[in-house]
Amino acid sequence: MKIAVVGATGLVGGLMLKVLEERGFAQEEILVAASEKSIGKKIKFSNRELTVQSVEDVINQECDYAIFSAGGQTSKKYAPLFAQKGTIVIDNSSAWRMQEDIPLVVPEINASAIKNGDKIIANPNCSTIQMVLALSSLQKNYGIKRIVVSTYQSVTGTGVKAVKQLDCEKENKECERAYPYQIFENILPHGGDFLSNGYTTEEEKLINETRKIFSDSSIAITATVARVPVKGGHSEAVNVELRKPFDLNDVYKLLESTKGVVVLDKPSENLYPMPINAEGKDEVFVGRIRKDESIENGLNLWIVADNLRKGAATNAVQILEYLTSK
Ligand code: A2P
Fold first, then answer.
1. Quick check: 14 pLDDT over 90?
2. Whose CA is closest to 287, among 307, 311, 261, 314?
3. What are the b/e assignments for 151-161, b being 16+ CB within 10 Å?
4. pLDDT of 326
5. The model's pTM
6. Residues near ligand 1 (Cβ within 6 A)
7. Please, what are the domains in the chain?
8. Residue 263, burial from CB neighbour count under 10 angstroms (0-12, 13-18, 19+)
9. Per-residue pLDDT averaged across 161-189, rounded?
């Protein structure tokens, strides 16, 4: 099998290579592409060295699969060219996610959305993946009427430049900024770009992608995204209004039996999910599970995951696993 990783020199692209290695793809032929400035660079993969090539060169080598994490513009331009050569593209950018004929997939929830002949498959936004995976069994069993989500997002979601900004500010130096303000010892109520309705693009993604993955446009959703000076993962305070009454013990059981979800919820022992513990793990962690006593059928959850893993690289490789196992 020939697999290309486009954006292999980036934060997510690098982790995609690691996850490919971890999940049994080490023996496959792996091709790596990045921007012009990285051509010729060497990247370690398993027990060998890969040389970064131009995207055009990799397209011409007619790979079976290409996993993209190189930004929306690169995906828009090159994914169709890969597809023309018969390569199936798994794309981590927001370029194709909301296009009607493109499946948007979290394999544990809706792998069946992938149809024979699909050439581009979209990987959802990191904040969406962890939320929908944690909510999937509740949606199936009770139906979800409304979601109110507030996120506390890691700087790793913005990329290398943002991680450098945080590290640099910690040392109290003059720093190049990925954000409009200092992020160290600060919180920015701002993820992505502002839209004319006052929401941000990151908030819009959470709303639209959740409805698409659950195939339920009737779910009311509102979101506030904040960037926090954290590296290990994204945290989310999620308030859900279910369509039917529920028993809290059943909710625990449903969450515990959801593949890819780990319940960490023992308040008496101060046990709850935190990004410091989620870092490097593939699971989505859920805690602080409690009834919202202010409304009927309301539930509060605290959801944490490593945004670079399940939120990006791992989910993309799981889509690849699904495709190769068909
Ligand atoms: P490069 O390192 O050569 O700039 P991150 O989001 O962590 O910054 O990573 C972005 C990834 O996308 C990097 O691997 C980057 O390569 C790659 N990339 C950016 N622009 C392009 C482009 N026009 N063509 C191919 N790869 C690109």
1. yes
2. 261
3. bbbbbbbbeee
4. 86
5. 0.97
6. 7-11, 13, 34-35, 37-38, 55, 70-71, 74, 159-160
7. 2-124+312-325 (3.40.50.720), 127-307 (3.30.360.10)
8. buried
9. 97
